[in-house]
Structure formats: C-alpha cells, structure tokens
Amino acid sequence: MKKILSIVALTLTVSLICVAQVKKITDTPTPCNGSADALPGKYTDHTNPKYAHSLKGTAPDKAAITKQLIAIEKVEEASRANVQLTGCVARVSFSGGNKNTFGSYSYNGYGYALGIYQNVCHVTEKVVKTVGEYRSVLRVDVNPTLGGGNFYGEFGDFYVTDKKVRYEIPIDAKRGVNYEKDRFNNRSRITRYLSEEMVLAGRSDNYKDKHGDFLKLINGDGYVENWMQGSSEDKVTAKSYQWIDRHYILTMPGTPLLVPVTRKEYLEALLGYYEIEKANFQWAVADQIKNNNSNTSICEADKVAYAKVYENKKAKVQQLLTSSSADWLQQPAVVLKDLRPNDYSKASNGLLDFEKFYDGDPKGMTLYNYNPEYFKTNSGQPLRPMFMEVQIRYELSEDKGFSKRYFDNFINNYDLQKLRTMLN
User: Fold this and answer.
1) Are residues 128 and 56 in the same domain?
2) H-helix or E-strand spanning residue 102
3) Are residues 271 and 251 in the same domain?
C-alpha cells in the first residue's frame, strides 16, 4: 500500500512539474531592447481580472449589475475594434453595489474600471515586464455620489459659560444606540447639502471658471479636468511629465442633477438640526459629569444657559419663516461654511446660530441638493442607471506613449452617446 501511495505521489509531483513547465513555456517573456512601448500589449476582460471583483448585494442584484457592467465593457471594446494595444496591459474589473442616497431616493452605485498597466523593458534581463500598479485608467461609475463628506463636517464644538468645558457635538444624528446607523441612513437635512466646491473636488482644478465647470457637471454637458501633476499652463518639454484626470457626467437631458437649496428649506433644516444639537448637548453634559466630577458645577450652569440659547436660536428662525415673503424664502441659500464664529472672546450660542444669508459675500457659498425631479423618474428601480460618470486618467511624457495613444483613441472612437442611451 505504501508503495502504491509513493507511486501516486510521485506521479502527482511530476504532473505538477509538467504543468508548471508548460505554463512557463506559454508565458515566454517577450524580448526587448531599451523600450517596450511599441511592442504588442494585452487586454483581459471581466472574466480574467487581476483581482477578484468586489460586487456587493444579493445574487439577483449582482447578476443584474454584472449584466449592466458587461454592456459598458462592450462599449470600450468596440472603441478599439481596429486598434492594437501596444506598450501596456489593460485589465477590466467590476466593483460596487452599495446604495447611494440622492435626496429622498436611493440607487445602487457600481462601476467598471479598465486599469492600463505600463509595459517596460527590464534593464538587465532585456525582456518585457508589466508594472504592478497603473496610473492610466478608464472608469465608468453608475449612480455615483457627487460630493464626499458633509458641507459642515461631522462634528463641532463649543462652550457655554466657561471655556474650561467644551462640548463636541455630532451634527449628523442624535447620539444613542442607533447613532451609527442613523448617521448614514437617517442623516440630518443640514448635512445632506452640497456646494460647488464639494462637487468639483478631485474633478476640476479650473480656478478661472469654477462655476462654469460646476454647471457642466450637473447638466451633463462636456467635460472638466483635474491636473494631478503638471499644469495646463506648463511648457511641454521632452522630459516633462503630465498626469491629467478628465471627467464627463452623462445625464438624461433637460433636468439638472442638482438644484439650489432655498432659504425656506435651509431654515427648516436648521430647526431640525437644533433638536439634534439639544439632544446631543444633553448627552455630552451627562458624559462630562460622569467622567470629570470636578466640572459638575460648570455643567449644571451650562444646562441652564443652553436652554435659553436653544430657545432663542429656534425662535429667531421660526420668526423668519413666518414673517418673510414667499419670494424671499424661495431665493437660494447662500451661507458661510463655519459652524460657529471664533469664540475666543465670546461664547458662540452653540453651533449654526443663524445671523443672515451671505449673498454677494466672497466667502458665501450657495448650497445645493439632489434634484427630486431628476431622480424620481425611475423610483422603485434602484439598479437602473440614473446617470454615469466617465473618468479617463492619462499620462503625457516621453516614455508614456501607451497612455497618450489610448487617450487619443478614446477621444476619436469611444461612444459616449451609447452610454447615454443606457439611461433611458
């Protein structure tokens, strides 16, 4: 019996060696001399990713998402029907599946990516090697969020009667057993708003026409660029390197993705926030007393003083809502980004104590919200593409010909309109 097992083990070992040898033979390195940029490249579709796909959701959802992403993959493949990749290895991957919230509506966000890995000629071995990470990439994201984070951040701090005791207050949801869930699924209205700055972050560095680029994005009109290295104003030389990130937002025509928040909406959101602040202040006071007995007298005085702060803030906003004209209330809300003024010399009355709107002030920022008229069209179909973001990140330098060629082919042959038809 032992002899039989030894023979089987030897047979398996030989088989594995043979398989390894066959693989080595089929993967014979391509010889090169100095550069690999002009040598044939390689493309692998979603069936052969470098890393496993990271799709989330139920099995039926994953199947539907995969079908949509394959349709997007086919658009890219068609753009290269008459083009041979050279100097690179291009690999497809799929990801996403989580729900993104757009005002009162939720849709699943997911994405296609084609990483373009540079091929180089190994200095001593004189064979083609593929760089392990990519800098050039094509991405198509379905139902992405337009701005990361919160306009006002997640926390603010203030003191009430004595600077020795400050309270850190979450502004997104009430503290408690459901806080971690509510801060994502039931966030305060005041933390859902976007600004031009948030939408342009990572998409455009066009400081000369920020508003123009913002309008391009929310209306699905043209593209914007973010120069990650180098500048559009730099002089291009044989040794220069430029790394550019171009973004297109594809939308259904006629309706913008975002609309300005009205003064009425903002003031009503403030009233909702004040209830959160009141509850979180009470939680913070209790926590301060529990963990620092020496400050108990200050905390007790703060509770009394804050009750008046809360009532005064609320009354001021309520009075504006009831006494202002309908036309005034429908104007866009232009605000400062500060949660409170500097409180070095005077307490700040908690956070977001309303003073005025800042129309015409250079520091004033118009707030925006996802447009319900846009997102209601496919309500109840969370997997449907409502809009897409196409990102092509490319490199320009003496040894990055592969990236420039891919970008040029994208400009000449990629069918963005084909993607737009998927939104209907």
Assistant:
1) yes
2) strand 88-102
3) no
